[in-house]
Design brief:
Elements: E1 4-14, H1 53-65, E2 69-70, E3 73-74, E4 77-80, E5 90-93, E6 100-101, E7 104-109, E8 112-125, E9 129-132, E10 138-141, E11 148-154, H2 161-177, E12 190-199, E13 209-212, H3 217-236, E14 244-249, E15 254-260, E16 270-271, E17 278-279, H4 282-290, H5 296-307, H6 311-317, H7 321-333, H8 337-354, H9 366-377, H10 383-395, H11 402-408, H12 417-430, H13 432-439, H14 443-456, H15 463-473
Parallel strand pairs: 13-14
Antiparallel strand pairs: 1-11, 1-12, 2-6, 3-17, 4-5, 4-16, 6-8, 7-8, 8-11, 9-10, 12-13, 14-15
The structure holds adenosine-5'-diphosphate (ADP), magnesium ion and zinc ion.
Length: 474
């Protein structure tokens, strides 16, 4: 039996505010445990929360970038559950009136563009972190407690593991673009729960399971694939899917049932009495809108129109803000967008892929990178030398002026006709048969001579001059 997969996501992202959402403790990662806490964020009786306006601003910003409607009045609820990482035994969250409603993000799929609808985005406080000690027992670090989070809840519009990955990659790029989160999955600033169900064509949605503990996009992909297979087997053998929460074990490559899925009523949501509802004026929304940068699609359009780049190239260049910013910096320094784009699309992207990290780090700067391109454009160095120089700049030395580097690395192109002619003459003498081939019009033989001159000059000969000399001498 063929089933269609139905997938919906709940994506949690920590916001990059300076301070926590309801107190003035710093919002910082990787500190000594429990030093970034105060009576509010460890839930001392009587301590009163005060809302961080920046968190609301960032939530609105995310909502605008995801085409949401911004609620004019947003409220807080207490979500109750007992777990030692939650000192108050409730999490301040939003259930009834979240900051953002509706919305969508468009992704590219095999069947063309597809809109993945967003149900809503709400704000909440993060919980602390449990550290399971090697000496037995568990320790708790409340530094993370009270860090602002947005939860982005999609409609169940995704239909495969691949599609889910594309959506997540686009979402992460977008949130980084607008600067509300650094979205580091390995540090937990982006976390995602995945809901999966199966149904037959034309039939209503099936019963879903929710998977937790997905620490990387790869884990998300594997967990979805596993869950689709697991549910398919159950249904094919006449069984029923139980609505439950499952925990993904990435090492074992399988998931385990954690608990029957709790319903909203299990959390006994009730109004947060210490925080008043927040009115969001259209004026405030307008101000936030003004802080939005050009989003990837608009920026790609600009590159197509202003720099005449192919749509495909523009899309790659704008897919990550670090790359798009680097491209812009380069264009401001060196007026050859096409050449810059070509180098970024090939050599720079290849390097980035080689050193795949969650955050793109460019060890080269725009100033020296464009100097290198200019040296190549001006024929001071040829293509192979430019590649050598680029490698050197990327791995060893990005600070020294490329003009000095090409001297040091002995890469300056030899265009001196006399010098090249002498080298070529000697090669012709040693290869009379190949020389006859050239005279007979054999193109491959020409390439042979170019190659030999390059070898003799360690790749520094000006290929144009060499070609002219071959024509002249043979
Ligand atoms: P709850 O409040 O019980 O968690 P929601 O309606 O908020 O339920 O849904 C949570 C997530 O589950 C959403 O991302 C939604 O897209 C997804 N979802 C809902 N129904 C299904 C389904 N039948 N199959 C897959 N995902 C689903
Ligand atoms: Mg939910
Ligand atoms: Zn605090």
């Amino acid at each position: 039996m063929i089933y269609l997969a139905v997938i919906g996501l709940e994506v949690h992202t920590e916001l990059k505010t300076n301070t926590k959402i309801f107190c003035s403790c710093k919002n910082e990662f990787n500190l000594e445990p429990n030093i970034n806490c105060c009576p509010v964020c460890v839930g001392m009786p009587g301590a009163l929360p005060a809302l961080n306006k920046k968190a609301v601003e960032y939530a609105i910003k995310a909502g605008l970038a995801l085409n949401c409607e911004i609620n004019t009045l947003t409220r807080w609820e207490r979500k109750n559950y007992f777990y030692p990482d939650l000192p108050k035994a409730y999490q301040v969250s939003q259930a009834e009136a979240p900051v953002c409603l509706g919305g969508y993000m468009e992704i590219e799929t095999q069947n063309g563009p597809k809109k993945i609808r967003i149900n809503h985005i709400h704000l909440e406080e993060d919980a602390g972190k449990l550290i399971h000690s090697e000496y037995g027992g568990s320790l708790v670090d409340y530094n993370r407690g009270g860090v602002p989070l947005i939860e982005i809840v999609t409609e169940p519009d995704l239909s495969s593991a691949d599609e889910t990955l594309v959506f997540l990659e686009n979402l992460r790029a977008l949130l980084k673009y607008i600067g509300v989160s650094d979205c580091r999955m390995e540090q937990g600033s982006l976390r995602c729960d995945v809901n999966v169900s199966l149904r037959k064509e034309g039939e209503p949605l099936g019963i879903r399971t929710e998977m937790k503990n997905l620490a990387s996009f790869k884990a998300v992909h594997r967990a979805i694939t596993y869950e689709i297979n697991r549910q398919t087997e159950i249904l094919n053998s006449g069984g029923e899917i139980i609505q439950e929460t499952r925990r993904w074990d990435d090492q074992k490559g399988r998931s385990y049932s954690m608990r029957a899925k709790e319903d909203a009523q299990d959390y006994r949501y009730f109004p947060e009495t210490d925080l008043p509802p927040v009115k969001i004026s259209s004026e405030f929304v307008r101000q936030v809108k003004e802080t939005l940068p050009l989003l990837p699609k608009e920026r790609a359009q600009k590159y197509v129109e202003e720099y005449n780049l192919p749509q495909y190239d523009a899309q790659i260049l704008t897919s990550e803000i670090t790359i798009a910013d680097f491209f812009d910096e380069c264009v401001a320094l060196f007026d050859n967008p096409k050449m810059i784009s070509n180098w970024i699309m090939t050599d720079v992207m290849r390097k980035i892929k080689e050193h795949q990290t969650e955050d793109i780090v460019l060890p080269i700067n725009a100033k020296n990178f464009t100097k290198m391109l200019k040296l190549h454009q001006d024929n001071v160095i040829n293509q192979p030398a430019a590649k050598t120089l680029f490698e050197h700049m990327w791995h060893q030395d990005s600070k020294t002026d490329p003009e000095q580097l090409i001297q040091k690395l002995n890469l300056v192109q030899i265009s001196d006709e006399g010098e090249l002619e002498n080298i070529l003459k000697e090669i012709i003498q040693n290869n009379p048969a190949a020389a006859d081939d050239v005279r007979g019009g054999n193109k491959k033989a020409i390439a042979f001579f170019v190659g030999q001159v390059m070898k003799a000059t360690k790749g520094k000969a000006n290929p144009k001059t060499v070609n002219e000399l071959i024509q002249k001498l043979l």
